[in-house]
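Page 37, continued from 36.
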């Protein structure tokens, strides 16, 4: 819990500092150098006028006056104006670059963010339920005191606690397959998700290793083929991937929201190689054959179904 608190503070500080610098670049820095360009341009014009006046009017003796000092001042003013122009160009060039770097950073710390905001609270909750089960077991006395009714009640309490630890009833994944079947593949538009910030938990190294142990045949798609991605899927805390028979140029994979949103959103056709730049953790997933369905939630991979609908993930993990 202390680690989660410190990590959340550190992540919040980093986020605040990045946004502060970005806002400074987009507003204060841009406004400042735009103003400096105007001021320095006006000074250049004044210096040019001083040079012109010095050369135009003769000295009291009738000779041409020297404009060395004025020309020196003009060169210095022009140099300062060029500096201001270059500074403004740098500001405008680095705004999109910083935005891109911020997006890459957010993608890099997404797993840590999920851990401190979801995995640790979930682990604490599971431990609390285990403690309740152990307390109920420790309170059970078979040597008298309370009789059968009290013992039965304690057994029920312990069973309820253990049942909560074991998890929820079996999930029905049929709606996800129905959602994939409803996708209009011909209406997919070219898209790029490399800068998207993904909110699901992503597959960790241990889970990726487990995917390599599946007995199913591996069918890795070519990097130039496309993956159909539901627009906004990266904002969902739970996503799913299902592979169907591919059309020409497609990998067969569809990636969509799995957070209860049944309606099919706008579909993007994303090159598989570009998707893997943003989601390296999906490399082992995308080699699974046609008919497989994978669900990834806040805590990582939560389910893998084969082409017959059999849930394989629990067995592989065991």
């Amino acid at each position: 819990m202390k680690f989660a608190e410190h990590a959340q503070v550190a992540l919040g500080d980093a986020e605040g500092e990045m946004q502060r610098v970005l806002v400074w670049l987009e507003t204060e820095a841009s406004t400042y150098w735009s103003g400096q360009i105007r001021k320095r341009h006006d000074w250049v014009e004044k210096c040019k006028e001083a040079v012109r006046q010095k050369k135009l009017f003769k000295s009291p003796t009738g000779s041409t006056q020297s404009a060395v000092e004025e020309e020196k001042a003009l060169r210095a003013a022009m140099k300062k104006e060029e500096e201001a122009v270059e500074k403004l160009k740098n500001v405008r060039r680095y705004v999109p670059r910083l935005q891109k770097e911020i997006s890459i950073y957010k993608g890099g710390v997404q797993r840590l963010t999920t851990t401190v905001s979801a995995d640790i609270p979930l682990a604490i909750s599971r431990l609390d339920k285990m403690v309740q089960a152990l307390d109920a077991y420790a309170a059970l006395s078979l040597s008298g005191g309370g009789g059968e009714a009290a013992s039965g009640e304690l057994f029920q309490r312990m069973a309820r606690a253990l049942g909560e630890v074991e998890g929820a009833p079996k999930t029905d994944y049929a709606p996800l397959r129905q959602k994939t079947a409803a996708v209009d593949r011909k209406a997919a538009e070219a898209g790029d998700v490399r800068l998207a910030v993904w909110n699901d938990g992503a597959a960790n190294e241990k889970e990726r290793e487990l995917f390599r142990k599946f007995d199913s045949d591996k069918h890795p798609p070519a990097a130039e083929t496309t993956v159909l991605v539901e627009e906004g899927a990266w904002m969902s805390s739970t996503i799913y991937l299902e592979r169907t028979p591919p059309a020409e140029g497609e990998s067969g994979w569809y990636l969509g929201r799995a957070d209860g949103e049944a309606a099919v959103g706008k579909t993007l056709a994303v090159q598989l190689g570009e998707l893997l730049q943003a989601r390296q953790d999906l490399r082992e997933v995308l080699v699974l054959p046609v008919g497989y369905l994978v669900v990834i939630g806040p805590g990582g991979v939560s389910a893998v179904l084969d082409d017959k609908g059999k849930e394989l993930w629990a067995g592989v993990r065991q």
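The first strand starts at residue 189 and ends at 190. Flag for discussion at group meeting. The chain has a mean pLDDT of 85.
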